[in-house]
């Protein structure tokens, strides 16, 4: 991760996510798992968190249903997902991990734990725990800034 300070929180947050995702992807590939694109990885994260309806995932990611369905189709082609009719809504579908997808999930959980340990060693136990606590805390509703709020000249 780049050590340059920008003064904008969004940049180190994104860099941290990219650092973590890259480590996870490289580790998964080293174990022979198929490469996932960033959109595929994001959908996989949602499914592992029990968000199994494509429409919910689309809303969460701010993407169109078509884009999410296309990406889910790519994951199905890799043998990790199946789309099944939604028992609660006959018009919709749900995502189910295949046995291969379940095995991949288990490997990913193991790797995530190992990456946590590496980061904890690098940052120190207390800063690592503080980082997690801050990121997991309730940030309140989304901050939408009024257009009338203009920067000072």
As residue ranges, the low-confidence spans are none
Assembly type: single chain
**Tertiary shape:** globular
Query: Numbering strands along the chain, what is their spatial order in the largest sheet?
Result: 1-2
SS-derived structural category? mainly alpha
Per DSSP, the total helix count is 6
Main sheet characteristics: 2 strands, antiparallel
Q: What is the averaged pLDDT score?
A: 92
Number of strands: 2
Radius of gyration: 18 Å
List the helices and strands in order.
HHHHEEHH
- What proportion of the residues form beta strands (DSSP E)? 5-15%
* Helix-residue proportion: 55-70%
- Give the N-to-C terminal Cα separation: 33 Å
Could you describe the 3D structure shown?
By secondary structure, this protein is mainly alpha-helical. The protein contains six helices and two strands. It has helices spanning about 10-30, 40-50, 55-60, 65-75, 100-125, 125-135; strands at about 80-85, 90-95. A two-stranded antiparallel sheet has the order 1-2. Helix 1 packs across helix 5 (about 100-125) and helix 3 crosses helix 4 (about 65-75). The two termini are about 35 Å apart. The model has no long low-confidence stretch (mean pLDDT about 90).
